[in-house]
Amino acid sequence: MGRESETGMDLRADAGMDQEPDAGLDREADAGLDREADGRTDPGADTRMEPEAAAGALIGERFPAARAAFLGGGVLSARRTPTSDLDIVMLVDDPAAPYRESVRWRDWPVELFVQRTDTIGAWFAKDTARRRPSLARMCGQGVILADADGTGAAIRERALAVLDAGPPPLTPAELDPCAVAGSRLAGQRQVAAARAAGG
Fold first, then answer.
1. Residue 11 three-state SS
2. How far is CA 191 from CA 20, 73, 177, 180, 186, in A?
3. 136, 123 in Cβ contact below 8 A?
4. CB 116 within 8 A of CB 89
């Protein structure tokens, strides 16, 4: 798994971060199998470390200087499954931020959303304009994993304000489904015409 900047550019992940740190586990543990008392295994059992503990360990080892970190997403709800991932928003002073990175950590797939305090507001606004305030939800409704200097509490307040305000009003074009469908159809016709013309 690799690292992707917010511009979509693929970056190489730090050496070894996509490797399992507990590589000495037996095959059943590696396969996520839980051995029952009678020797049978339950392939659906989730034997991973609890999400908050795993996320906290990742932050402590990989981002010890993080100003704030949040764990969000479905992993904290009844929707959690054995394939759930850890969605972690991290506030750091790293000039390379903002970026997004996918890693595996102690049997967990992890999505890291690495931000700075001077970039996260713009990402809240961008997500809200798309009517998908994912980052604000993770910060506002997730668990604060780290808050070294009050940044976590301040970001949570900003995220909750974004969520309380809601999305911008729909435009007339967005309110008219026929206009939206018509513009899509017109675009499809243009593509078909260009292909037919050899372009």
1. strand
2. 46, 38, 21, 17, 9
3. no
4. no
Instruction: Tell me if the pTM is above 0.70.
Output: no
Tens digit of each residue's pLDDT (9 = 90 or more) over 77-132 = 888 888 899 999 999 999 999 999 999 999 999 999 999 999 999 999 999 999 99
Domain ranges of the chain: 3-168, 170-199
Q: How far apart are CA 87 and CA 85, in angstroms?
A: 6
Helix (H, G, I), strand (E, B) or coil at 20: coil
* Secondary-structure class of domain 3-168 per CATH: alpha beta
Pairwise CA distance, residues 101 & 116, whole Å: 15
CA distance to 4, 39, 100, 101, per residue, from 8 (Å): 6, 47, 9, 11
d(CA 110, CA 123): 20
